[in-house]
Write a structure and sequence with these properties.
With 221 residues, the chain is α/β, with parallel strands linked by helices. The protein has a single domain, classed as Aldolase class I (TIM Barrel), CATH 3.20.20.70. It contains 7 helices and 10 strands. The strands form 2 sheets. Strands 1-2-3-4-5-6-7-8 form an 8-stranded parallel barrel, surrounded by 4 helices. A two-stranded antiparallel sheet has the order 9-10. Strand 2, helix 2 and strand 3 form a beta-alpha-beta unit. Helix 5 crosses helix 6. It is globular, with a radius of gyration of 16 Å.
């Protein structure tokens, strides 16, 4: 099953609620990201949003914390939280070595209820020298390999997506987190399972467009 996760750049509780109320019929869940305010304030906002919409699956990307801080109690104790997404898994130079795999598995060990969407060959990060080799290592510790184009709102090179897809085990899901729109999604559908989308379905940085969200959701089937 293909899944659509609109990404909400969280401005305040009221704005997040408005986005969800207008689009919740056309999503499989949401990712909330903190912008322009501290993570401690963000945790409370996330908790309040989940309490408001207990039947919806939510994930978070805490952009002001390094990977090793993402599995602290303040985050993992948020009741109802399903996913954690990080652009950078803390691996060096885009590679995944044994020590990186071990560290990620250790961080996740006591939080089996949280799926990790782990950035791989991600925007603004050092890219792996060999995507296929790095992918084999990454899938040992990352629940859902999550890649992107070269920047925010930039679509990923299709050959890159095909290379990652070919390297993954057949039961592993692949996510993409930049550049997806209703106009280009068809070419990614044979390879990508999960779509984390903001720019392509938004009116501005903080406002999801209901009709674009519905259109993309319907195109994913």
């Amino acid at each position: 099953m293909k899944r659509l996760f609109p990404v909400i750049h969280s401005k305040d509780f009221e704005k997040v609620v408005d986005n969800i109320e207008r689009t919740q019929s056309y999503v499989h869940g949401y990712f909330l990201i903190n912008h322009n305010f501290h993570s401690w304030t963000f945790y409370k906002l996330v908790e309040n949003v989940i309490n408001r919409f207990p039947k919806i699956n939510f994930g978070i990307n805490v952009i002001d914390l390094p990977f090793d801080k993402l599995f602290i109690d303040e985050i993992t104790s948020i009741s109802g939280l399903k996913y954690i997404w990080t652009d950078n898994c803390g691996n060096d130079w885009g590679e995944f070595h044994d020590r990186d795999v071990e560290r990620i598995l250790k961080a996740k060990a006591n939080r089996p209820h949280l799926e990790l969407f782990g950035g791989f060959a991600f925007k603004y990060q050092q890219q792996p020298k060999d995507i296929s080799v790095a992918c084999v290592a990454a899938e040992k510790c990352v629940d859902i390999i999550t890649t992107s184009g070269d920047g925010t709102g930039i679509e990923a090179d299709l050959s890159k997506i095909q290379t990652i897809w070919a390297a993954l085990n057949e039961n592993k899901r692949l996510a993409i987190a930049s550049g997806i729109t209703p106009d280009n999604v068809d070419k990614y559908k044979p390879y990508v399972d999960d779509y984390l989308v903001a720019t392509g379905i938004s009116d501005d940085f903080y406002t999801l467009n209901t009709e674009k969200t519905k259109k993309l959701y319907n195109m994913l089937g």
